[in-house]
């Protein structure tokens, strides 16, 4: 069985612009990552997933990743980039469930172990209608981040 990990949260459509702006602050340039695109994906009118490359200041996990992947330098000095992490969206009642996922062993390790990455995604919970971010693993077991 492949390694996989998903971080997901429910976002009100009225909060999508602020959510996207916050996520975009950690992305390599990605003009496709917009509230309108997430709504189109959720409605089934656009590609089912977006490929994203994130960038963060180094921590021990990200430094280990960068040592194994010399191409991990991002466009911002002093940051380590990793991708492809995928984003998808689905309507859940009036809200939009936004999920970030990977099936890459290396990226799964980053999502599980990087303090920088986990803190960022945990902080996204402020945009969630229920205040939490769920982590779902390859066994489909879920728990709050």
What does this structure look like?
This protein is of the alpha+beta class. It has one domain. The protein has helices at 16-24, 35-42, 60-68, 105-113, 115-123; strands at 5-11, 50-56, 80-92, 95-102, 134-137, 142-144. The protein has a six-stranded antiparallel beta sheet with strand order 2-3-4-1-5-6. The longest helix has 9 residues, at 16-24.
Key words describing this protein structure:
alpha+beta, 145 residues, single chain
The side-by-side strand order for the widest beta sheet comes to 2-3-4-1-5-6
The helix/strand class is alpha+beta
Describe the global form. globular
The rounded Rg comes to 15 Å
Brief overview:
The protein is an alpha+beta fold and 145 residues long. 30% of the residues lie in helices and 29% in strands. A six-stranded antiparallel sheet has the order 2-3-4-1-5-6.
How are the elements arranged and paired?
Layout: E1 5-11, H1 16-24, H2 35-42, E2 50-56, H3 60-68, E3 80-92, E4 95-102, H4 105-113, H5 115-123, E5 134-137, E6 142-144
Antiparallel strand pairs: 1-4, 1-5, 2-3, 3-4, 5-6
């Amino acid at each position: 069985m492949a390694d996989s990990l998903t971080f997901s949260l429910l976002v009100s459509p009225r909060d999508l612009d602020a959510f996207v702006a916050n996520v975009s602050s950690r992305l390599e340039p990605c003009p496709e990552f917009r509230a309108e695109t997430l709504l189109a994906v959720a409605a089934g009118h656009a590609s089912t997933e977006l490929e994203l490359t994130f960038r963060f200041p180094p921590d021990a996990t990200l430094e280990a990743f960068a040592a194994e992947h010399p191409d991990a330098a991002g466009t911002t000095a002093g940051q380590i980039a990793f991708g492809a992490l995928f984003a998808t969206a689905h309507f859940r009642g009036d809200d939009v469930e936004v999920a970030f996922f990977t099936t890459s062993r290396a990226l799964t390790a980053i999502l599980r172990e990087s303090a920088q990455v986990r803190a960022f995604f945990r902080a996204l919970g402020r945009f969630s209608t229920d205040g939490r971010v769920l982590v779902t693993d390859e066994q489909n077991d879920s728990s709050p981040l």
